[in-house]
Amino acid sequence: MNAPAEIRLPEKIAGYKTFTLGQFTFARDEYFVTITWPAKGQRMSHTISADAFLRAIMRDVAWGFFYGLVNFDAVFGTRNLYGKVELFAGRYNEAMHKNGLSYVETFDSPVAMAKFKEILADWVNAGFDPFAAPAETGNTAFGEKNGNNLDAINRFRVATKRMPGLEGDSPLRDDANGFPVNRAFADVPQDEPEIRAEPGFEKELHAFNLFKYLSRSDVTWNPSVTSVCRNSLFCPTTEEYILPIIHGNDRVEWFVQLSDEITWEISDRETGRPRARLVMKPGDVAAMPADIRHQGFSKKRSMLLVWENATPDLPKRYERGELKPYPVDF
């Protein structure tokens, strides 16, 4: 966080536009993003590396602000109120909030979403992909404005109804539809299961090779829904480098490590105080409590299955204390 100051950001820096949303302003230069907000009669400011900011805001846009908190870092982020969204600066930073330096403003979700998309469209340079690992997109996030990459930020978001590959549902990934095997998963078998359904059940029985499906994921840290059973969602994903956001839960999440390894830093959802460090290896299962925030680190591209409970009233039930923040008593 920078020192309090009267900050007037120019309308354009290094070719990048400066944006305003409510009392927040967002500006970027060759290397950094600067966010300002009002507190104690002044303007506070905070600086984030441009690539980290773009990776985080890309997740907010792709996930529709996701469940609970999307902390871009220890200061700035968003809280999904499902229909509305809070933008916060310092609210979940214990020192800033106690000293009156935090700020929260609520927007209709479509309004905030439209502004975030404008920012991405202007600030993502040609060649930079906020969904890709650093080894795949290099340092193209930096420097003066250089074109754009609308194809990367406007990827088609798969909306699976029951399971990929079923008739009328989302397609399986293959070379033919633009999903080659990722460089890290060259040894993953690509065969599909054989399905023999009784006559009349050909459209009801279905199976596919999940490891093949994941080996062809073109993004990192971005769950894809692969099975839907009412409010129970299986959302596997491939992970490499650092989860670009620190996710603050508003429900319990279940993690199943399918391959390789992820280290998770776990902290208190409200204050950010450290709670635990968890190393997950293939076959490990973990339940992330409803009152924590977490960030993952994967030094090699790995596969993770996230099981989400999308029951609409869960966040309020946890807030009212009707449910324990963890799923099991030992």
Spell out the key features of this protein.
4-stranded antiparallel sheet; 330 residues; alpha+beta; 7 helices
Reconstruct the topology from this structure:
Blueprint (H helix, E strand, L loop, with lengths): L11 E2 L2 E2 L1 E3 L2 E5 L3 E8 L2 E8 H14 L5 E3 L4 E5 L3 E6 L4 H5 L4 E6 H15 L10 H4 L12 H4 L56 H6 L11 E3 L2 E11 L3 E3 L4 E7 L2 E7 L5 E7 L4 E4 L3 E18 L4 H6 L11
Antiparallel strand pairs: 1-2, 3-4, 4-5, 5-6, 7-8, 7-13, 8-9, 9-10, 11-12, 12-18, 13-18, 14-17, 14-18, 15-16, 15-18
Verbal overview:
With 330 residues, this protein is of the alpha+beta class. The chain is built from seven helices and 18 strands. The protein has helices at residues 50-63, 94-98, 109-123, 134-137, 150-153, 210-215, 314-319, and strands at 12-13, 16-17, 19-21, 24-28, 32-39, 42-49, 69-71, 76-80, 84-89, 103-108, 227-229, 232-242, 246-248, 253-259, 262-268, 274-280, 285-288, 292-309. Helix 1 packs across helix 3 (109-123). The longest helix is centred in the middle third of the chain and has 15 residues, at 109-123. The chain is globular, with a radius of gyration of 21 Å. 34% of the residues are buried.
